[in-house]
Amino acid sequence: MHQSFRSFTAVITGTLITGLLLAGCSKPKPAAPPSGPPEVGIIVVKPEKASLTTELSGRTSPQLLAEVRPQVGGIIQKRLFTEGSEVSKGQVLYQIDPASYQAAFASAKAAEARAEANLHSVRLKAGRYQELVKINAVSQQDNDDAQASLKQAEADVASTKAAVETARINLAYTKITAPISGRIGRSTVTDGALVTASQPSALATIQQLGSMYVDVTQSSADLLKLKQNLASGMMKKGGAAQTKVKLILEDGTPYPLPGILKFSEVTVDQSTGSITLRAVFPNPKQTLLPGMFVRAILEEGTVDQAILVPQRGVTRNPAGAAMVMTVGAEDKVEPRPIKVVRTVGDSWLVSEGLKAGDRIILEGLQKARPGTQVKTVPFGAPPAPAAPAAAPQPAPAKK
User: Fold this and answer.
1) How many Cβ atoms are within 10 Å of 82's Cβ, its own excluded?
2) Distance (Å, rounded) from C-alpha 146 to C-alpha 249?
3) Which of 41, 175, 217, 259 fits as disulfide partner to 363, beta carbons 3.0 to 4.6 Å?
4) Is the pLDDT of residue 347 over 80?
5) DSSP three-state, residue 21
């Protein structure tokens, strides 16, 4: 047993001695070189021309719409159109039973003929009395009565002619025609339905879809700000051409054809404080349908010397004012308060606080403490390649 213990002690001692020899032969690692100033990504301010747009939501509506209603009452005999088809102005859409109106027309024609026959007799009598009164063959009173009867007979003829025309119009109204050309929707009545003159519910609706209106709303405050920017010269209005409008459909796809702004409402909606703007778009393929929700992009104007700063480079101080971190003299970080007007794409439009040539930090803001010196690189540039690692030294030969 004592022999085994001695062997175990010898093995442990040899292992410790070997480890100490190896540790003594290995060289110590060199200390890391001192780190330089932190690296930040910057952009240099360069004034550029920017187009300012506003995106507003709205809905489409047809440029021309007509609701078909009967102008006389009666029973619908037949519907003469296909729902959803194109109809032409004057095309017959419904036929109302014309029997009673034909009878009224015939009665009016007969009354007209009777009045004209009576007029002929009264006219002859008035002519004779007019000659006889000159030789005192009849009294002046009889002549006056004859002339009055003539005028009354003439008025009766005119009245019956008007009654005939009214009966003819009512008979024509039994054929309900399309007031405009366009696409007709569904019919609200079927054959055999009773309709009345000027009823509140329409029989059908016709819409012209070749051109579409897009009505959008803009707050009155934004409109006033736009006018102020134009008056101050910060923005310039486009040429003499009407303002162009682009359209984004419900699914996010852009509408291929541009539109133009027709007019803006002259009254502010008291409940919302907004103004309605109307644009018109060509719709040759009838892609736009009435009632669609769309987003309109209006061109407001341009800024020739716009200073744009990406939104990621703009922060807010405790007071809520906008500010950026710039690199000033001796490559030291300087906070700079700025005044922003609005967003343009993914950038802020800056009106005060920056000038051409200023260097703005966009990357490495967490390392850019005010007053510290930094190393600047262009924003988005690939990082510098790391220095190659030193080749490992061969281990010394064991002695």
Assistant:
1) 10
2) 78
3) 41
4) yes
5) helix
pLDDT, tens digit (0-9, with 9 covering 90-100), for 134-148? 888 889 999 999 999
How many angstroms separate the Cα of 318 from the Cα of each of 114, 322, 323? 98, 10, 11
Give the gyration radius of the chain's Cα atoms.
Answer: 47
Could you give phi then psi for residue 292, rounded to 5 degrees? -70, 140
Contact call for residues 207 and 63 (beta carbons, < 8 A): no
Arithmetic mean of pLDDT, 215-222: 85
Residues of the chain with CATH 2.40.50.100: 70-96+177-201
Domain 98-173, what fold?
Answer: Helix Hairpins (1.10.287)
Does this model's pTM top 0.85? My answer is: no
| Distance between CA atoms of residues 89 and 196, nearest Å | 22
Q: pLDDT tens digit string along 255-294?
A: 999 998 887 777 888 888 888 888 999 999 989 999 999 9
What CATH number does the domain located at 70-96+177-201 have? Answer: 2.40.50.100
Contact 93, 173 (CB under 8 A): no
| pLDDT at residue 396, rounded to an integer | 54
Right CATH for 40-50+306-378 from 1.20.140.10, 2.40.420.20, 3.40.50.2020, 3.40.50.620 = 2.40.420.20
Residue entry with tokens 């920056």: 354
Residue range(s) in the chain whose domain bears CATH number 2.40.420.20? 40-50+306-378
Fold of 52-63+209-304: Elongation Factor Tu (Ef-tu); domain 3 (2.40.30)
Give 44's contacts (C-beta < 8 A, 6+ positions apart).
357, 358, 359, 360
Is the confidence at residue 351, as pLDDT, over 90? no
- Do 61 and 215 meet the contact criterion of CB atoms below 8 Å apart? yes
Quote the DSSP letter at residue 87: E
- Name the β-bridge partners of 349: 308, 342
pLDDT one-digit tens code per residue, 120-171: 999 999 999 888 988 888 899 999 999 999 999 999 999 999 999 999 999 9
Tell me the HSE value of 111 on the side-chain side, using a 13 A CA sphere.
Answer: 18
Answer yes or no: is pLDDT of 382 > 70.
no
